[in-house]
Every structure is written in structure tokens, then in C-alpha cells.
Amino acid sequence: MKKLIAVIAGATSIFGFLGVSHAAEKHLFYIHGCCIDKVGGGAYETIVKDLQSAGFNVVFDLRTDDSTAAVQAYASKVAGQVKNLLAKGAAPEDITVSGYSLGSVTAMFASIEIANPRVNYVLLAGCPGKGARSFDIDYAKVQGRILSLVDVKDDRFESCKSRLPESALRKEVEFDSGQGHQIFRYTTDKAYKLWKEPLEAWAKGQ
User: Bridge partners of 124?
Assistant: First the structure.
């Protein structure tokens, strides 16, 4: 599918056209973490290009507003785009919403609005812990086919097992990369094997 790159209101977007859906397409929403003004967006853009090269129709926005209001607004935007794909004929199993850190929180907010247990989700870093910002997430309402990936040395995020419904959290993988929270924005072969390969497999229904 032809990709479109645009700069809109200070946010860079890389996405496939969402107006028409075909059964064979795999749609992947990738939501990055916070603090773009500090860490930059280069690693995320590399990740998006690599996900596109793996055959996914990737929806991605490079955003700088990390406020709670902006997170909730973007979650609603993603939810609307997913619902549009479903209305156009996409199978829920062919749609994946993935998010890292603040993006994981955003993905959970979106899942509550989407309210479809067959849509895939990948929570990169898992759920916010004591070292993360506090968000008013109604975990009992989070639904979907969810994979959580957690680094045991992460000092901000942690396991989702005690929070998400068992019907939603289908699988959680813990590992020790030695890098903690940051591993999910690294693009080395070692990092990709820990988080990108499981994300792609989950999005493909494996």
C-alpha cells in the first residue's frame, strides 16, 4: 500500500490510507513514548519504517504534547480510526494497536473506546508502576487480545497481571535486557529480538 508522509500542526504523521480496507492488510498503530522534545523522534521513525518493511500498514504520529488531555484526545483519535477500519470491512484480528510507555497508556485508553475483544494490542513496557505518572485508567474496562512485554529492571512500568482482566491479557512476557525501560525504543538486533519480533508475531495472529 502506498504510504503518505505529512507534517500537520507540528506533528509528523506516517500512515497508510485508511479510507478503504482489504482483507489481507495488517494495520498497525504505533504510539511512541513521552518526551520527544528531549529524546527526539529519530528512533521512532526508524522503528516505523522497519515495521512498514515487515509488511504492515503503519499509522504513526510524532507528537510533542504529553499532557493527560492530549493523551486522552489521541486515544480517542486512534479509537476513531480503528472503528473506521472496522466499518470499512477490516477484520479486527488484522488491526493492532501498540504503544510504548506513555503510548501503552494511550493504547489502553483507546481499547476502552474501541470495545472490541478481537482487536490486537501490544503494551511495550506493560502498565505504569510507582515510578510513572498516575493515570485514571479503568483497567476493568480494557479489552482486546493483549500482549504485554515487560523488562524486569524497568523502574517506571511493570507487569499488567494484577490489573488487566484475564480475558484481555492473553500473554505477558518478562525479560531482563539490562536496559530497563529504554529497551523498547532501541533498534539494535538484540532489542528487536526482545520486543519487535514478538510484536510482529502477535499482530500476525501468531
Answer: 100, 149
